[in-house]
Amino acid sequence: MPILPTIQGPADLRGLDEARLAQLAVELRETIVRTVASTGGHLGSSLGVVELTIALHRLLESPRDRIVWDTGHQAYPHKLLTGRLERFGTLRQLDGIGGFPRRSESPHDVFDGGHAGTGLSIGEGLAEARDLRHGLERIVVVVGDAALMSGLSLEALNDIGHRQTQMLIVVNDNEMSISPTVGAFSKYLSEIKLSRTWRQSKSAYDRAVERIPVIGGTVLELSRRLRRVVVNFAQPGQLFEDLGITYIGAVPGHDLHALLETLGRALTLPGPTIVHVRTQKGRGFRPAETDQVGFHGAALPPIAMAPDANGYNGSRSAMPTESMSDDAAPPSLVAEAPRKNPNFTAIFAAELIELARTDRRIVAITAGMPTGTGLAKFQAEFPDRFFDVGIAEQHSMTLATGLAMGGMRPVVALYSTFLQRAFDQTVHDVCQNDQPVLIAVDRAGLVGEDGTSHQGMFTLSAQRQLPNLVIASPKDEQELRSLLHTALAQDHPFALHYPRDAGFGLKPVTPAAIPVGRGEVLREGRDLLFVGFGPIVARAVEAAEALEGEGWSIGVINARFARPLDRQLILDQARGKRLVVTFEESVVTGGFGSGVLDLVEEARLADPAYRELAVRIIGIPGERFVDHGSAADLRRVLRLDAPGLAEQVRETLVTLRATPGRSEVAAG
């Protein structure tokens, strides 16, 4: 009988023996693969923590005890074990289960995550609050080896060790970026440190040595140094030990018995403890095991489960795992996705490579996302001019500033949502020093299924206030190429925003630099003026065409630049109109539309022709975060698709009581 459907919550795990838990691990993997094959998602990381998740929920009493999943994209097994099996098929879909922990979904979800490196600070805060109110709950943070090296994580580790905060940190090491252990001696030392005798005897020894007259302090220091040397020789945890955190590891992350034994004993140790767990990304599903980057997620193509050599067609519940024979081949993947036009990211990377072939000053930087930003291809061609700084967005911006000061032309490609983390460096380092750093803002606008933590909706508003920074976005993929030329041909900080969307399939044109701050008129019109920023311009044109059928004459401007605006072009085209409507796929608070409104308000003071001109700003509402769902679904719900844009304009015209062809403002 299947076990997973009987699990209503973590408490149900305590009635299962280890053999049944192993079978449950098989069912969890099968469910995750089946679901992600349909919905997309972070497959590899979730498959890698199945046994770890089972062990933690077996030992802890969630939600009384608190499990913080750093980043959170590995939390699919956690969701399945906490009562969300029936809705799991809606993963990352509109109004469905989120791809990251969400407190609105379950009391077992402690923190609305999505960005790496936040978990340790959250966990420390929970533990310190517990101690202040004399609580008894246990606090566990699961953090990946890459996220552990982020600046925020290191700051938290330092404070945790200093305060001796009682908490358990599980390092999920699936990339072997932490040094390997040295055989049986490391295991032996971990076993010693897990024992109460070791803790008590070490403290008693230190106290005894310290009391030796005259030489006690010196002997104690020499003794501690010797102890550190021995530990450092045997295992890679000396950094943590020096910070005051007990290090245990490494533990095989797919051995349920070892996990239950080690974690159970580690939870009883005083002070902060790290358990280093070795896992394999994509465990149990061979395509994900062999292609750990491709199957990390989240934008997997639509895939189907295909029959294997043994006739597997998705109807059996036996997913190959580590306990099965290597001859039992896992299901293969068959791509079913229709051919798509190259996306903006791919076009950007290809053009950057082309430019770098003739300009050796161009260097590329990213923060742990070479594949997602398209820069892996740049790295392959120019390895000596490529920098992947890991999950350290702040460092990427300051490094770029130094490179620019040294005569290079650095291009920093970051997802819009992660660029938020480097705001101070953008202000203090890049813009204050007025250096020619190109900030490639990938995934600008609605990203989709990853939800609230990943929508690229805030960066534009944040950047508009910064001196020296040019901000641009193309209406299509060919204009993206031209704006890349523009950015590299000028001598100031430049932010180039573009979405994750597929391009429009336009034929290639010869790119040429566009003068900074120059927009273009796409349509002339007498009644209304649409001014758009970025690829939403195409939808604005569609909306104009729909309203034209209702008698409205509408002009359309492709602004290209949010800063500086093409002031004269906008004012010339707005003269004599009843209404100016701005369009952006960004939060409307302080965004592109606010810049146009500021311009019109300024013109009102000097020119009576603009005194009756209304301005409507259309974009992402600023009152709430945008949840998960496909970008198309979200645009429909937010009325940012072409029909929704037209509908919002109609509502505004009704409010103004405006009619086609009867403008209330005379042309000056």
Q: Can you offer a commentary on this structure?
A:
This protein has 668 residues and is α/β, with parallel strands linked by helices. Among the domains are: 181-235; 344-497, Thiamin diphosphate (ThDP)-binding fold, Pyr/PP domains (Rossmann fold), CATH 3.40.50.970; 521-656, Rossmann fold, CATH 3.40.50. Helices cover 39% and strands 15% of the residues. The protein is built from 25 helices and 19 strands. The strands form four sheets. Strands 9-8-10-11-13-12-17 form a seven-stranded mixed sheet, sandwiched between helices. It has a five-stranded parallel sheet with strand order 1-2-3-5-4, with helices on both faces. Helix 5 (119-132) runs parallel beside helix 7 (151-163), helix 14 (344-356) runs parallel beside helix 15 and helix 21 packs across helix 25. The longest helix is centred in the N-terminal third of the chain and has 22 residues, at 18-39. The protein is globular and about 90 Å long. Residues 176-182, 306-337 and 664-668 have low confidence and may be disordered.
